[in-house]
Write a structure and sequence with these properties.
The structure holds 2 protein chains of 2 kinds. Chain A is of the alpha/beta class. Chain A has helices spanning 47-54, 77-80, 98-108, 115-124, 138-150, 168-183, 196-202, 220-226, 238-250, 276-285, 297-304, 307-311; strands spanning 9-18, 21-31, 36-41, 62-67, 83-86, 156-160, 188-192, 205-210, 213-219, 228-233, 265-270, 288-294. In chain A, helix 5 runs parallel beside helix 6 (168-183). Chain B has 2 domains: 20-87, Orthogonal Bundle (Arc Repressor Mutant, subunit A), CATH 1.10.10; 89-131. Chain B has a two-stranded antiparallel ribbon. In chain B, helix 1 (20-33) packs across helix 4 and helix 2 (46-53) packs across helix 3 (57-69). The chains are: A alpha/beta, B mainly alpha. The A-B interface holds A 34-36, 172, 175-176, 179-180, 182-183, 197, 200-204, 221, 294, 296-298 and B 14-15, 17, 19, 46-47, 50-51, 54-58.
Chain lengths: 316, 132
């Protein structure tokens, strides 16, 4: 049964197949009450599938899922009304006016849904009520969906790539909406996004999703405390000696040549960095450590989610 | 809505090694040190500051919690956050400490670069004149 000190939602070891492709491979995620959690991952990493399972819109093949202490597939109508979901996908009839969509929602969504609040938000977001849904710009469509979701005063607000198509003003409104939501007690937000700059502002916790599982997670501070970029001068034994020592002592699989550094230098990105290991590594390999520096969230993103491929996806 | 005057036109640096809550805390201390908020004056609410800075309210809560722990502010339930008496003196001191630290780092850099004391003094005078 639901308790106020328990997480709002938990996925543990969730698996899911689509045909012969396994999309989720044991994904773990916990949403603590009153926090903003960001899912960062590339397209096809499994973020949206995890969200759909969490929302009870999609079944799972294995593992456990709980929302408000209950299996999401078995949520009652009253419990569902406490969740709001915003996606990039547009909905509604193209020929419907915005005001008719609001009226439709007022009748469809339960008593929790506040039409006056929806209208106020639409005015603030500058979405004209007499416009037809088919004529809305991509950004206006996103703002409409956000307004309709917020009007439900959700306890759990789930945003799946919500900022797509939003310009800077739209993103500002959108960040304010998250801030206003979580500022109120016991409101929880889950956001899947590519926009690292936005995520850094509003997220309490970040989970990097790669290949159907969470590759790394923690608060922003924890993640930044964990990773270090270490620059070495190659030893007499050359790259093989350094690579072997990095692998054995630091758990680093590969060295990265730094395009801005001289050819006799290499960079290792170290997870779970510990100060003492550098001296031991120097002693064992003969390499000299030139610099240890902390990494930005963007650098950690590129590292955790696969450097080369991810670079194309990080925008702004 | 109250308008925070905490020197917030400077953008926060999310890539900095200094955590964002510390950056915000420093700005609050500087604002108190220069008298923008006097003893017992009310500080911006968590919500107002979070919106002004576009950061998670939990971050602002942490800032205020740290400042309260240090005795620089106090909260009154349901009323808001206020500057503690004598906070200005201590904020001025911490402001001086921070600037001294930065200058110390600059000095270390100058030594490393091999600047003489005379060159340093000339440089410093030039900076002061340019900045005034």
């Amino acid at each position: 049964m639901e308790r106020s000190d328990e997480p709002v939602a938990v996925l543990s070891g969730v698996t899911r197949w689509f045909g012969r492709e396994q999309v989720l491979k044991g994904l773990d995620l916990t949403l603590e009450r009153g926090t903003v959690t960001a899912l960062l991952g590339r397209n096809g990493s499994g973020k949206s599938t995890a969200i759909r399972i969490l929302m009870g819109l999609l079944g799972r093949d294995g593992g456990d899922a709980r929302v408000f202490g209950r299996d999401p597939e078995l949520l009652t109508t009253a419990e569902r009304e406490r969740i709001a979901w915003v996606t990039d996908a547009s909905s509604g009839w193209a020929a419907t006016q915005v005001r008719d969509e609001v009226e439709l929602m007022r009748r469809l969504r339960g008593r929790r849904w506040d039409a006056a609040r929806a209208l106020a938000l639409l005015a603030k977001f500058e979405v004209p009520l007499d416009k037809h849904l088919g004529a809305l710009s991509k950004g206006q469509g996103t703002r409409l969906r956000l307004a309709l979701a917020l009007a439900a005063d959700p306890e759990l607000l789930v945003l799946d790539e919500p900022a797509l198509g939003l310009d800077l003003f739209g993103r500002h409104d959108f960040l304010e909406a998250i801030i206003d939501t979580v500022e109120r007690e016991d409101r929880t937000v889950l956001i899947a996004s590519h926009l690292i700059d936005d995520v850094e502002r509003v997220a309490d916790r970040v989970a990097f999703v790669r290949d159907g599982a969470v590759a790394a997670d923690g608060t922003l501070q924890e993640l930044r405390d964990r990773f270090r970029r270490v620059r070495f001068a190659l030893p007499a034994g050359g790259e093989p000696a350094l690579a072997a020592a990095c692998r054995d002592l630091l758990g680093v699989e590969r060295l990265v040549p730094d395009p801005n550094a001289p050819p006799d230098e290499r960079v290792a990105v170290v997870d779970e960095f510990a100060e003492g290991l550098v001296a031991e590594l120097e002693a064992r390999s003969g390499a000299r450590c030139l610099e240890v520096r902390r990494m930005t969230l963007r650098e950690i993103y590129l590292e955790v989610l696969g450097r080369r491929a991810a670079r194309e996806e990080v925008t702004t | 809505m109250e308008r925070p005057t905490l020197g917030m036109s400077e953008p926060l640096d999310f890539d900095s090694d200094v955590p964002v809550y510390e950056q915000i805390g420093t700005r609050v201390k500087f604002a108190i040190a220069r008298g923008a908020y006097e003893a017992n004056a009310q500080l911006p609410s968590v919500r107002a500051l979070a919106r002004a800075l576009l950061v998670n309210p939990n971050t602002v809560i942490r800032v205020y919690r740290d400042l309260e722990r240090d005795g620089l502010i106090y909260t009154r339930r349901g009323k808001g956050v206020f500057v503690a008496p004598h906070a200005a003196r201590r904020c001025k001191k911490s402001r001086a400490t921070l600037v001294e630290e930065r200058l110390g780092e600059a000095l270390a850099l100058a030594r490393q670069a091999g600047l003489t004391d005379d060159e340093l003094e000339a440089l410093w005078r030039r900076l002061l004149e340019a900045g005034s």
